[in-house]
Amino acid sequence: MPASLSFSVASPGGPRAARVVHERRGAGRPLVLLHGIGHHWQAWEPVLDILAADRDVIAVDLPGFGASDALPDGIPYDLEGVIPVLGALFEALGVTRPDVAGNSLGGLLALELGRVGLVRSVTALSPARFWTEAERRYAFGVLSMMRAGARALPPPAVAWLARRAAGRAALTGAIYARPARRSPDAVVAETRALREAVGFDATLAAGSSGLFTHDLPDVPVTIAWGTRDRLMPRRQGVRAKRVIPGARLVRLPGCGHVPMNDDPALVARVILDGSR
To answer: What is the largest CA-CA distance in the chain?
Structure first.
């Protein structure tokens, strides 16, 4: 069962309490999993038990998403605001320089954690901020439409759609290559998470400018991209490889933007191989 952890973080107004919900399974070297914008820790559910066979796996609801609280007042939803909070979370969890894997926004956060030396290795699945301006506008437009739809649809309508393969495709087809594989309950839960994500708007606004331009020569980096990523095309992975020449660039055949559900065995293997 997920656990709730409260810990102190620095803010412009002094120390404040943050509360983060996380799921922890397995034993071994710690591996932290970070989801994308509007999602929750359950995005990693398809790979959790595979990873937990070898590792102490901690899947996190990022602040302002899932069941975690919003960031305390005065802390922005940009890299400068979120990264120190994740560092404080690692300390509260009792993990020092864990391996980290992230998807989309979580992939960007994982790379930044690697840049500042807070993690041992990075696996980034379709990480943000390797786009062109046109690609960014397209991705943000799709995400904004998904958010608007999640907020407009009454819960009974979401549940009705989720019971049908075509409905699951309508709700989640932008991020999964195989949305019919998602269970109705999972689709209902992630639609609710998207609807209720208090950090969504501020996070999207914070990502409207700037690219990730830093090499990470001292941290093992794996960048993986689904061949059927409809939200952020895989050519962005080639750009990421140019920015981080030492990174291992992995192709995920048949996978969409959130690949953990499309091919759990492959994604788990990529994460484990990247954090040996």
So the answer is: 50
